[in-house]
Amino acid sequence: MADLFKTRVMAGKFRLLILLTLFIIVILARWIGNKAFTKHEMRYDPVTVMTNENPSSRSFFENVKSVVSPVVQTRPVVSSLAWQAMSVDRPGGVSLNQTQDVVLWRSIRKGEIPIYRVPVFTYTPKGNLVAIAEGRRISSKDFNPKIFEVRRSTDEGETWSYPQRIVDDGKSPIKRSSYIGTIFVDDTTATIFLMYVFCEFCPTRSLMLMNSTDDGITWGRPRNITDQVGKEYATHPSPGNGIQKKQEPAKGRLVVCGHGFYNGKGLVLLLSDDHGVTWRRGAFVRSQPFKMRLKKGAFDPDECQPVELPDGSIYIVVRNEKTYKKYHCKMIMRSFDGGETLPQNYTYLDQALIEPRITSGLWYHDETMFYSGPKHDTNRRNLYIRWSYDHGKTWTSEKRIWEEPASYSTLMMLPHDKRHLYILYERGHKTEIDEIALTKLKISSENDRNE
Ligand SMILES: *[C@@H]1O[C@H](CO)[C@@H](O)[C@H](O)[C@H]1NC(C)=O
Ligand SMILES: *[C@@H]1O[C@H](CO)[C@@H](O)[C@H](O)[C@H]1NC(C)=O
Ligand SMILES: *[C@@H]1O[C@H](CO)[C@@H](O)[C@H](O)[C@H]1NC(C)=O
Ligand SMILES: *[C@@H]1O[C@H](CO)[C@@H](O)[C@H](O)[C@H]1NC(C)=O
């Protein structure tokens, strides 16, 4: 009996020893890992900080000024002189005046769907408006089972159809749920698409694509395109708009920007050259480090919103999730080859666009680039539209849309109406997700007044 007791005590002590050793090994491994990390981060410097004094950012802008540029820019093609000459014709003096404000969804915080979040918004092939938002069951948490609801307006935002469910996770368990998602239009085939991810936190995510060929009235069954792009690139299509290239290179191509992968962070462009039938991966920018824990200050490009510029290049504003180098501002990326690559030397931090780590709206129209987001470095409030007449080099003008809590936003214009800009966004008095509202703004420019 006593012997048995002794052995038990011994076994206990032995186990303790093993546990202690294991513990020390883990600590050591983490320490070594962290050392390697820091070294790695120091070697790799993916982003320059844009300041006026920084010569590399100046040369960057001399390059991008070229509106008549060739397909892939590999060296400066426009001198600063040419740039100045061009700037004479630039428009200016655009102002925005609110003409309408309507709430499309309210988070009533009880019942079947207590919370509405993450709106996306597009024009339709027939010149109407379609808005889609997530209804979240149980609570406001991202991973809850959801519904997607569509609302349409055929009178430029005056009146809206009754919400219609197009996706419903039902009572599916937490985390096996759907997440919005990028909306985009193929103008050639008059088709509206919504790409979204199902089961974001599962080892195999499902990348889903659904469409409407009747201007957003009815939506077909979602198609699973995970195997087309490859499991490892099944990203979260970022909330906002995809684009269809209207200029060369790759005219007609559909481009969707996504962020994050199972077990990894970063940004990927998904491309389709056959009007949405097949998809493949284009540019892929990994976080630094990749597939490891990211600390504050790491390079972690997150939710992204692309626009096409007149030279056929793609300009992308990117959420800077880990405040790279401790800068609370957006990252900017560019592609000159239709989304195949996002060259590292055209990636920079734009200190003018401060952000509290959030998705933003971006719309390019007639030499004016509009941007929307909270003008605050840590809090989701104080939502502004800001605009640039020089392709994002300087942000000269701004209009405050909502001073109180406000969160995700998306910008849009109707192709036939060059006089109005729409912003659909989350806002509230108590919290930033009390409601999803649409504000319509009249665009007037000095040129109009001179006419
Ligand atoms: C960017 O890098 C490419 C090659 O990696 C080079 O050809 C090009 O000149 C660089 N551009 C600038 C503005 O540094
Ligand atoms: C827009 O609003 C500004 C001030 O908010 C005002 O000065 C301007 O006249 C307005 N423009 C139009 C076209 O209504
Ligand atoms: C989508 O396809 C992937 C890969 O074939 C598969 O693992 C996943 O279960 C599919 N998802 C759905 C919702 O059918
Ligand atoms: C559009 O949706 C329908 C119905 O699900 C599907 O049959 C068709 O393949 C889809 N088209 C594209 C281009 O995804």
How are the secondary structure elements laid out?
Blueprint: H1 2-43, E1 48-50, H2 55-64, H3 80-87, E2 95-106, E3 115-123, E4 129-136, E5 146-153, E6 164-168, E7 178-186, E8 191-198, E9 206-212, E10 223-224, H4 226-229, E11 236-237, E12 240-241, E13 243-244, E14 254-261, E15 264-272, E16 280-286, E17 301-308, E18 314-320, E19 329-335, E20 348-354, E21 361-365, E22 368-374, E23 381-388, E24 397-412, E25 420-427, E26 435-444, H5 446-450
Parallel strand pairs: 1-20, 7-12
Antiparallel strand pairs: 2-26, 3-4, 4-5, 5-6, 7-8, 8-9, 9-10, 11-14, 13-14, 14-15, 15-16, 17-18, 18-19, 19-20, 21-22, 22-23, 23-24, 24-25, 25-26
Organism: Branchiostoma floridae
Subcellular location: Cell membrane; Cytoplasmic vesicle; Lysosome lumen; Lysosome membrane
Main location: membrane
What percentage of amino acids are in beta strands? 35-45%
What is the CATH class designation of the largest domain?
A: Mainly Beta
CATH architecture of the largest domain: 6 Propeller
State the share of residues found in helices, binned by percent.
10-25%
Q: Would you tell me the structural class of the helices and strands?
A: alpha+beta
Total of domains: 2
